[in-house]
Amino acid sequence: MKWGQVKTIFIFCFLILDIYLLHHVMTQQNSYEFLEEVTTEENLRNNLNGLSDLPEEPKEAPMLHAKRKEFTEDEIEELDNLSGQKSLVIDNHMIVGKLDKPLTINVEGDLSEIEPYIWNYDQYVYYDKDEESNTLILFQKLDDHIFFNQSGVLLIHLNEKGEMTHYIQTLLLKTDEQPEKETLRKPLELISLLYDGGQINPGDEITDQVLFGYHNLLPLPSGVQVLAPTWKIEINNEKVFLVNAIESHHTQRDPETFIGEMMEQIKAYLTKRQNVPIKPINDEWEQEELQEFMRELLQDIDEGDGEE
Amino acid sequence: MKLELFKTILLLFLVALSVTLTLNIWSYQGNYEYAEEDQAIDAKLNGTKQTKRNVIKPSQILFHEGNETFGYKNKVKETEFYSNLREWSLYNFRMMDEGEEIPTDTAESWVEIVFPTAIPTSVINELFPTDDSLLYDSEFKRIYMILDGTLQQGQVIFASGDPTKMNLRASVQNIAQIQEFLDGTQQTEEFTEYVNVTSLEQSTSVYIPNEPEIVGRKYRYTAINPDTSTIQSIFFTNPSSIVSSPNPEGGQVYSDSQREVTVRGYYMEYTNFLTSENQNEQINTVPNTIEHLLNTSLDYINTHDGWLIDEGIQFYLSELNRLTNSIEYRMVHQNYPVFSYEGLATMELTIQNMTVYQYRRPLMRLTQSYDREPTDLMTGKEVLQAITTGQTNVSENEIQDIQVGYRIQQQPGGQIFDLIPTWFVKTYRGWQGIYSITQQGGE
Hints:
The complex is a heterodimer. Chain A is about 30% helix and about 30% strand. In chain A, a hairpin with a 4-residue loop joins strand 5 and strand 6. Chain A is built from six helices and 16 strands. Chain A is elongated and about 120 Å long. By secondary structure, chain B is of the alpha+beta class. In chain B, about 25% of the residues lie in helices and about 35% in strands. In chain B, strands 10, 11, 12, 13, 14, 15, 16, 17, 18, 19, 20, 21, 22 and 23 form a 14-stranded mixed beta sheet that branches. Chain B is globular, with a radius of gyration of 28 Å. Classes of the chains: A alpha+beta, B alpha+beta. Chains A and B meet through helix 1 and strand 12 of A and helix 1, strand 10 and strand 20 of B. Chain A: Keywords: Membrane, Transmembrane, Transmembrane helix. Chain A: This is Regulatory protein YycI of two-component signal transduction system YycFG.
């Protein structure tokens, strides 16, 4: 055999050997490099739906220090100029209003027809509708969403025809001093924790956009509330988890309980179980007129709808 | 000829490629093994390591002037005083004779430093600067320092409080300087009267502050997830053999048939059944001295960086039990002890045959703290009054100790731990909060 032929045979042999080795290197790298991820992230993606569109930002955020807004005399006068309604300010921070005539609104639309009736309406973002009490919930947006905070919410009560009859409004204000930024955990990590803890089951779906916002952490003695950076994660269109993006503690909230709590609070105010100042926005009202209006409101709350 | 040259070059290239690929595969396996070692190193809780000097701290510092007793109103000041005290050199140690009295009767003023539990005298040279080698086999629970100048020698007494254990006596250098420091602190700091609790079960006297300055605090916290391989490799040699099942009392149980970790909320309990099986064979071969308990437990917690401490939070030695071979480190906030009914404020170890048989600890770490609205706390005198007149949940004759500290409690919503100032009593059932039966006065 000639040296030339031997070379050709060698070339074939090494070609085959190299292809084999190349294949080996590739599979090896895949199996080792992604070993961790296969067990966590891939496993999660295989078992849950709706993980494709998770937000990446923000990666860091501070705790939020906020105070409930107390209305000044001037602002109460401003409130008096809002169209067709009778309203009260409870404890200087909560407006309860009743429209003179029920207002037709389009729940599917942008709700802009409400605007002339509500002070600083542009600060609120529609969140959900509670069918049980026929109420629309709008959360305040202080740069970011404020989830389920009794001091930063607008509740719109509808009658049977879907017309707006009453509303309750509170506002939060950022305080001057804000803490330092802290590193946040990603939504996927937190979903993984919920999954490991059995709160989410295989086959479940993350419905609705995972939202970044703030949720109550604790009240300070000074009246300042501390709110924690929070991811809102909705499962199967029914359960809503609010997960603390720094410490990963989670709570479950739903509109119905939240509205129930708000109503209990207002009842406590109106029946004077909790003694706080209640002022009519129109100062020409007589004491009797105010009492009558409060009775009316209480009756409306107890009946569960705004029909007269 | 050109074709032959091309074939030669191609062959050389293929040979070289096969060599590089082979080397690549080999070196990659090397990398993989290395990564596995890294994982083993990661069996830690991200806390810190501690030394005896850092965990052995007094529970009380009392200043006696004749018949009156005072202490700092704010207990944080005690740490300052104690760290100052640790700079003073002691020399000339000697054992006290059996009949020799602690000379507090003749002295005008003296300082009494009370430790939460009896501590082996062999660690004195780790706590204080001294040149003497201490070969005495004894214990101490209180240190008396006679500092009014009546004594030239032997001003410091390490008292065991146990008639079967010897007391030690030593001299201190620069007594004038110490006196100066004392005078200074007494002028600048606020003090409160300490009330002597006479009618207790114990032979040694217990003092409680009448008007302590104690402020509650609210803490954010992070939980340690027991499901991670990091945690499991602390307690198990082979994490892949762990079987996890729900705990009938709530929580999870992790077990590999020889060891078991039970988790309930933020509390965990590790048991190593291997040590208890061998117990009978070896019980006489290894004497479990108190010092050995101290060393083993410190080493054990240090190995996994288990001291989850922070600026306001520390863990100090609180109990050493020779009979049960157990040792306890208690959470301390602003130098006041923290108590929990869920086991969240202590790390407790039981040691058998040189190894850890049981280990109980919290699986959470308090991080950032916030102000809390002030609470109405009974004064020391009111507490004693309430106890002696039978208005509380504890009866007078079962009380072994009384302390003011914090009750740690999770807030509704689960995002915050609340440290609530409370009076606590120790009975044979352990520590419990005092509350008055007629009105809520314990907080």
